[in-house]
Design a protein that fits this description.
Length: 527
């Protein structure tokens, strides 16, 4: 007869790092009884994976910040792939417009989590990710208690939980800490590591970046081992390929290029399918649940709300594809090169002539089940990660690797000639391919940070964002207001998000905030 284990989930205490007494008083109702790995699996679906927002709900049709709304929508507005709309009415006091929520993040303000009407925004992402981690810690700990359950079930539950915990620490350390640099990772403050399933009556300090990355690698390696040979029925459940792909990405961030190559090779051995854009109908939405390229996805979709010029919703969208990014698809046009991705990733704005919006995963265009831009992993990244790692090691095979992707994305016999590229020129080309391919999937902000501290071929970039006053009418043109500049890393502290105030208060000074951001001055509208 199976034993019944009473599990007191301390996940919420992990969110706020409350004292043990406070936690027990406020959250003693969170008692969960697990009698098998099947019970743990159900808990993981409900509380380990990111919550999916119900389609058609208020939170899914506008940008909001709450415990149940979009995951980190600001990740899509801080980098150089996005610009603000010139056209279209919006009210600075209306919370329907994403500009109300995201303008201060878009312009890297000293206090980024403030609305345009100067109301504080609760940044729940930090808390939500730790809440997920809290549940996962318990699942990871208790799997071993159910030895009578089938081995494959135990391995799958453990593997998924390890993958998710590694993924959440990857997100936390890249949002709230400095990028990984071998020279400083042992001293740079990362995020708080909590790996226990029980309540600890203590305040939590921040672990070094190196320690966090070491734990991420350990979790993802454990996930890959436990998920080996297990086939998942849906892209919403993690498998071995997902663990190895994220591990290869983490190795790139760490400068462990040979290890990244090895993980990519293990994925390729299991077969990787790419769309051939030459064979697709123009305008077909790429990121759908039916796509053979999608490895895994979870969370929420923000880009389709940030970028829309639907005349029936004039106050919703406030962002568009940057000119710099869009022009990158035509960089080699004078050489007869035809990059097909521009036809599939973007659509022309109806409001602003010659400007474009991202439609890589917009549901409204074909009714397909969601692929979430908060967290999506695609087959194309396998070749991008491998090629970049090979180029960093000066391996000539890098060109053959990246050509596998290029042959599927450029018109037949009309792709860039890279035969003479080597060294930094080849690395730069692969990085540009990464930007063209993975735009608006949560990569660019993290990539810019890691390029700045790369031990080889480092590149630190300044970002310029323009802002516009509201138009006087729905169809009117906005007025250029001014420009904000983010200086290259590490010369600007705004490359790292501040730790939420509530975490600092609850931890009574034990958790240290990131370096204070500068008061950012807008450059005038004389250009």
């Amino acid at each position: 007869m199976k034993k019944y284990y009473m599990i007191l989930f301390f996940a919420i205490s992990c969110v706020t790092f409350l004292s043990c007494g406070d936690f027990l008083q406020e959250y003693s109702r969170d008692l969960v009884y697990a009698s098998s790995c099947t019970d743990l699996d159900e808990i993981m679906i409900g509380d380990g994976y990111m919550q999916r927002m119900p389609e058609g709900s208020y939170g899914s049709t506008s940008i909001t910040y709450s415990r149940t709304s979009h995951y980190f929508p600001h990740l899509h507005v801080m980098d150089d792939d996005v610009e603000e709309f010139v056209s279209g009415y919006f009210s600075e006091t209306s919370l329907i417009s994403p500009a109300s929520w995201c303008r201060n993040l878009y312009t890297w303000q000293e206090e980024p989590f403030m609305t345009l009407s100067n109301s504080p925004i609760d940044n729940y992402d930090y808390a939500r990710l730790y809440k997920h981690i809290g549940y996962l810690n318990v699942i990871i700990s208790y799997v071993k208690e159910f030895q009578d359950d089938p081995e494959e079930l135990r391995r799958r539950v453990l593997g998924e939980a390890l993958f998710l915990r590694g993924a959440y620490y990857y997100l936390l350390v890249n949002l709230y800490a400095k990028p990984f640099s071998k020279e400083t990772a042992d001293s740079d403050l990362g995020v708080s590591l909590n790996l226990t399933e029980y309540i600890e009556d203590k305040h939590f300090s921040r672990d070094p970046v190196s320690h966090v990355y070491k734990q991420i690698v350990k979790d993802l390696k454990g996930a890959a081992e436990n998920l080996a040979g297990i086939k998942q029925p849906t892209i919403y459940r993690a498998d071995e390929q997902d663990a190895r792909l994220l591990l290869s990405r983490v190795y790139l961030y760490m400068g462990e290029w040979q290890l990244a190559i090895e993980e990519c090779d293990k994925i390729i051995e299991q077969k990787v399918t790419l769309y051939d854009f030459n064979e697709l109908a123009r305008g077909q939405v790429i990121n759908t649940s039916k796509s053979p390229e999608i490895f895994f996805t979870q969370g929420s979709s923000s880009v389709q709300i940030l970028m829309t010029d639907d005349w029936m919703k004039p106050a919703i969208g406030r962002y568009r594809v940057s000119d710099e990014l869009y022009n990158l698809y035509f960089k080699y046009a004078d050489q007869g090169v035809v990059d097909l991705r521009a036809n599939f990733f973007f659509k022309r704005s109806e409001k602003e002539s010659g400007k474009y919006l991202c439609i890589k995963g917009t549901k409204a265009y074909n009714g397909a089940t969601s692929v979430f831009d908060a967290f999506v992993m695609r087959a194309a990244e396998v070749y991008l990660n491998k090629a970049e790692a090979q180029a960093m090691l000066d391996q000539t095979e890098a060109k053959n690797t990246i050509k596998i992707l290029m042959d599927k994305r450029f018109a037949y016999n009309q792709s860039p000639n890279i035969s003479n590229l080597s060294g930094q020129e080849l690395v730069n080309f692969i990085r540009e391919e990464r930007r063209r391919e993975l735009c608006f999937e949560g990569h660019r902000w993290f990539d810019l940070r890691r390029y700045a501290v790369s031990p080889k071929y480092s590149h630190a970039k300044e970002i310029v964002h323009k802002v516009f006053d509201a138009a006087s009418s729905y169809g009117g043109a906005g007025v250029y207001k001014g420009t904000y500049v983010l200086k290259p890393y590490p010369n600007d502290n705004a490359w790292v998000l501040p730790i939420p105030d509530r975490e600092l208060v609850f931890n009574e000074g034990v958790t240290v905030d990131n370096e204070k951001r500068e008061v950012r001055t807008m450059i005038g509208n004389n250009n």
